[in-house]
């Protein structure tokens, strides 16, 4: 029997997320039912938005359930869940990254960074984010030396490092949050901090998507991403600030005004993370992971807003509290 | 190994392990045969191709699936022969036609008559990564004999990077399988093979991006 040990505040927030998802599912169901019964035949019922919305809501159920369960089971389960997320993101990236067939060993080096990073954190290793990319770079150099191929060294090592830094080192700051001592993390402990930053960033994503789809017109950065609009960015920022101000006092050592400011910052960094992933896809000539890998994709898109926001939040709590 | 146990072992290797590792995305799974006899043909770049194809089917159908393997390659070593013949129930096929050697397709024919599903790689070998080589006409000979048997083409993508020829440790990478429309014998071997080839051209995941660098 696993004893679930969660701070009451975390339970309340998880219950709130559950309520929101239930609301989303039932609202969509009610809208569809109303359309059928009243014979409205609304245009959006036949648009591709509807199945996409349904897919997204279903995905949210699965992600929220896995995330909530890992938080409830405990520290090691949370770390294992985050390591799995790192693996899924890295695999998605390596599957489309332009490695040549003879550069196969670099991919093993990239995967090996996952147990290194999370094992380090699970063993109580201190905050040493620089170690894993340096070890990965050393491994890449060793492989290059064995191959005796200096050609393309910068290209291939950059490909490995991008994956290691984004999929593993950046996301592992979420795991570092879990391990923060109660003296720093305050009321809801490390898991509360993790829940806070994930909820704030993901609600920013959801708001950016919803506002951008419904009223976004002017494209923010057409050269990098055609889907991101100015209105969407504004909606995302408003959501992160509001959600952070709402949850901050319950999950973190921050007061309300401080949480609002940090929420804005997380919103900005979340958008920048999204832009970085879009730029990467542009460079690879991929418009959307989902089309290239039908039925796949999405792991990187799901966590892009955390790539910069998670390390920022960790260091902010670590140094400012 | 008892039959039941073997099915479970096969399933455990193929479904949770292989599909979990490759996160296989399957397009048009509804085109897969739900019962034998049938012939599955696919592009071939990796030993993992066979595992990926087996992973497309539910557990109860694993017993009916018979991969066809090259006799010369798979009987060259004992462990290889055991895994292929005993564990996966493979049918060995002579790649070189020996004069007076009897009917090379007899075992395949018998399996089809028994209502089993053959897994064939008409290229006859693991060719250049990500490219479809020349097809051997064996499939056409086989369907000519069994015109009622559907031939289902499958386009596998990404497996050439998971476990290429000569590599021994597989890499976890996303793979795709696109099931083509089932084809029936059309009365002409040459046009049948040409149609089949067109339906089997593989999709390359990393190479589109690689070409730009």
Secondary structure elements and their pairing?
The complex is a heterodimer of chains A (321) and B (213).
Chain A: H1 8-38, H2 49-73, H3 75-96, H4 104-122, H5 131-147, H6 153-178, H7 182-185, H8 189-215, H9 230-251, H10 256-284, H11 289-292, H12 299-303, H13 306-320
Helix pairs in contact in A: 1-2, 2-3, 3-4, 3-6, 4-5, 4-6, 5-6, 6-8, 6-13, 8-9, 8-10, 8-13, 9-10, 10-13
Chain B: H1 3-22, E1 25-27, E2 38-42, H2 48-54, E3 65-70, H3 71-74, H4 78-87, E4 91-93, H5 106-113, E5 117-120, H6 138-145, E6 151-157, H7 159-162, E7 176-179, H8 189-200, H9 207-210
Parallel strand pairs in B: 1-7, 2-5, 2-6, 3-4, 3-5
Antiparallel strand pairs in B: 6-7
Helix pairs in contact in B: 6-8
Textual characterization of the structure:
The complex is a heterodimer of chains A (321) and B (213). In chain A, helix 1 runs antiparallel to helix 2 (49-73), helix 2 (49-73) packs across helix 3 (75-96) and helix 3 runs antiparallel to helix 6 (153-178). Chain A is globular. Chain A is built from 13 helices and no strands. Chain A is mainly α and 321 residues long. Chain A has helices at residues 8-38, 49-73, 75-96, 104-122, 131-147, 153-178, 182-185, 189-215, 230-251, 256-284, 289-292, 299-303, 306-320. The longest helix of chain A is centred in the first third of the chain and has 31 residues, at 8-38. By secondary structure, chain B is of the alpha/beta class. Chain B has one domain (2-212): Glycerol-3-phosphate (1)-acyltransferase (3-Layer(aba) Sandwich), CATH 3.40.1130. In chain B, 36% of the residues lie in helices and 15% in strands. Chain B is built from 9 helices and 7 strands. Chain B has helices spanning 3-22, 48-54, 71-74, 78-87, 106-113, 138-145, 159-162, 189-200, 207-210; strands at residues 25-27, 38-42, 65-70, 91-93, 117-120, 151-157, 176-179. The termini of chain B are far apart. The model of chain B is unreliable at 204-213 (pLDDT under 50).
């Amino acid at each position: 029997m696993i004893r679930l040990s969660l701070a009451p505040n975390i339970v309340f927030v998880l219950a709130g997320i559950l309520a929101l998802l239930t609301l989303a599912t039932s609202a969509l169901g009610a809208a569809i039912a109303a359309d059928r019964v009243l014979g409205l035949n609304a245009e959006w019922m036949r648009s591709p938005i509807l199945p996409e919305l349904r897919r997204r809501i279903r995905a949210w159920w699965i992600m929220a359930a896995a995330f909530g369960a890992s938080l409830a089971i405990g520290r090691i389960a949370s770390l294992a869940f985050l390591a799995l997320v790192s693996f899924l993101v890295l695999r998605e990236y390596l599957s489309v990254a332009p490695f040549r067939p003879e550069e196969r060993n670099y991919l093993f080096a990239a995967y090996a960074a996952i147990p290194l990073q999370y094992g380090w954190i699970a063993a109580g290793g201190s905050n040493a984010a620089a170690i894993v990319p340096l070890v990965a770079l050393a491994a890449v150099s060793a492989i290059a030396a064995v191959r005796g191929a200096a050609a393309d060294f910068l290209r291939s090592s950059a490909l490995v490092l991008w994956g290691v830094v984004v999929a593993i080192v950046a996301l592992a700051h979420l795991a570092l949050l879990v391990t923060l001592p109660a003296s720093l993390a305050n009321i809801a402990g490390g898991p509360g901090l993790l829940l806070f930053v994930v909820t704030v960033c993901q609600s920013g994503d959801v708001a950016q998507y919803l506002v951008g789809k419904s009223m976004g017109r002017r494209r923010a950065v057409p050269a990098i991403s055609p889907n991101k609009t100015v209105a969407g960015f504004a909606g995302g920022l408003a959501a992160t600030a509001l959600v952070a101000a709402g949850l901050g006092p319950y999950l973190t050592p921050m007061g309300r005004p401080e949480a609002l400011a940090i929420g804005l910052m997380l919103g900005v960094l979340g958008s920048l993370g999204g832009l970085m992933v879009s730029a990467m896809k542009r460079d690879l000539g991929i418009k959307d992971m989902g089309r290239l890998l039908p039925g796949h994709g999405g792991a990187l898109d799901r966590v892009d807003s955390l790539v910069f926001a998670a390390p920022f939040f960790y260091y902010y709590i670590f140094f400012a509290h | 190994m008892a039959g039941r146990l073997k099915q479970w072992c096969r399933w455990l290797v193929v479904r949770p392990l292989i599909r979990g590792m490759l996160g296989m995305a399957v397009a048009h799974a509804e085109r897969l045969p739900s019962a034998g006899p049938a012939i599955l043909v696919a592009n071939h770049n990796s030993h993992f191709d066979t595992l990926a194809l087996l992973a497309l089917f539910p557990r109860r159908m694993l017993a009916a699936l018979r991969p066809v393997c090259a006799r010369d390659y798979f009987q060259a070593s004992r462990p290889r022969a055991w895994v292929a013949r005993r564990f996966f129930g493979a049918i060995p096929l002579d790649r070189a036609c020996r004069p007076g050697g009897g009917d090379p397709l007899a075992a395949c024919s018998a399996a089809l008559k028994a209502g089993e599903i053959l897994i064939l790689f008409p290229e006859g070998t693991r060719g250049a990564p990500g490219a479809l080589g020349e097809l051997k006409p064996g499939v056409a000979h086989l369907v000519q004999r069994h015109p009622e048997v559907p031939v289902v083409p499958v386009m596998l993508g990404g497996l050439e990077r998971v476990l290429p020829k000569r590599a021994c440790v597989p890499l976890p990478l996303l793979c795709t399988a696109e099931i083509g429309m089932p084809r029936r014998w059309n009365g002409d071997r040459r046009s049948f093979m040409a149609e089949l080839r067109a339906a089997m051209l593989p999709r390359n995941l990393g190479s589109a991006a690689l070409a730009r660098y």
